């Protein structure tokens, strides 16, 4: 490369660095305590407005509060570090399997319809449903938007939950969620606990309705490579789809095992 070319390269790199630094300066800054949340929220609201988010959705965002309960739950997921046997005992794996077998029989037509459409058998769907909300008995009582905004502000997984927050604002625009919607500690919604971006991509109707939630879960699994008729235990073709549902290895193995116990395979 000539000296002139080298000089041009340096200039271009310097300009790119300035642009990047300017973007970083403009972006809402994450934090690890409640102290900076209000300032972050105001800056994020300005960014959202610039991206075309509606006034009503921004008003909902401005009404959120920092959730110490969400942060505590996010830092305290100790059960994911248990052995499989310990995890199943803690989460009531045998009870989920027993209730799942009963529901498979009582709602046979629903599960047959879902399996015909998505290729997913009842076992893993019932295992997820039971594990996530005790078959709809515990949906969570946190303000979903506040939980998601708190995690978007928190530095630990800011980028991931920033995407979730923009998805939540989109769902508010569409009337799917409201500023008062309740969910679990991380802002998950419905019978099988979908985050906002997952609702946008795979949701099929009101997820507080069991049939819709189960169909949406099957839709998610199919979209992540589920093959009708293939196995779903570790090492089998469909286990990767279960892995896409939750990143915790012990959770993945528990879903596969409970599903197998429900399906009787």
TrEMBL record:
| Matches recorded under InterPro entries | Lysozyme-like_dom_sf (IPR023346), MltB-like (IPR043426), SLT_2 (IPR031304)
Pfam families per UniProt: SLT_2
Establish whether keyword Signal is in the entry. yes
Signal sequence annotation = 1-27
Q: Specify the domain of life of the species encoding this protein.
A: Bacteria
Q: Where is the Transglycosylase SLT domain?
A: 37-232
Entry annotated with the keyword Signal: yes
What keywords are annotated for this sequence in UniProt? Answer: Signal
Q: How is this protein named in the record? A: Lytic murein transglycosylase
Q: Which organism is it from?
A: Methylocapsa polymorpha
């Amino acid at each position: 490369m000539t000296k002139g070319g080298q000089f041009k390269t340096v200039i271009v790199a310097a300009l790119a660095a300035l642009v990047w630094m300017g973007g970083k300066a403009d972006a809402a800054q994450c934090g690890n305590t409640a102290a900076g949340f209000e300032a972050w929220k105001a800056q994020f609201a300005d960014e959202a407005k610039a991206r075309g988010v509606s006034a009503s959705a921004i008003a909902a965002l401005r009404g959120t509060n920092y959730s110490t309960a969400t942060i505590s739950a996010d830092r305290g997921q100790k059960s994911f570090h248990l052995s499989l046997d310990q995890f199943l005992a803690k989460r009531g794996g045998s009870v989920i399997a027993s209730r799942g077998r009963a529901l498979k029989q009582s709602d046979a037509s629903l599960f047959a319809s879902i399996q015909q459409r998505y290729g997913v058998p009842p076992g893993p769907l019932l295992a997820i449903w039971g594990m996530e909300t005790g078959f709809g008995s515990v949906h969570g009582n946190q303000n979903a938007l506040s939980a998601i905004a708190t995690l978007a502000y928190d530095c630990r997984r800011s980028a991931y939950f920033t995407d979730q927050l923009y998805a939540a604002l989109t769902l508010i625009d569409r009337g799917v969620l409201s500023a008062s919607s309740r969910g679990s500690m991380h802002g998950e919604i419905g019978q099988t606990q979908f985050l906002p971006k997952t609702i946008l991509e795979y949701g099929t109707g009101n997820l507080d309705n069991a049939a819709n939630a189960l169909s949406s879960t099957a839709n998610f699994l199919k979209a992540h490579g589920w093959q009708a008729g293939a196995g779903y235990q570790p090492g089998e073709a469909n286990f990767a789809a279960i892995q896409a549902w939750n990143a915790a290895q012990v959770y993945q193995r528990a879903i596969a095992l409970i599903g197998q116990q429900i399906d009787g395979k």
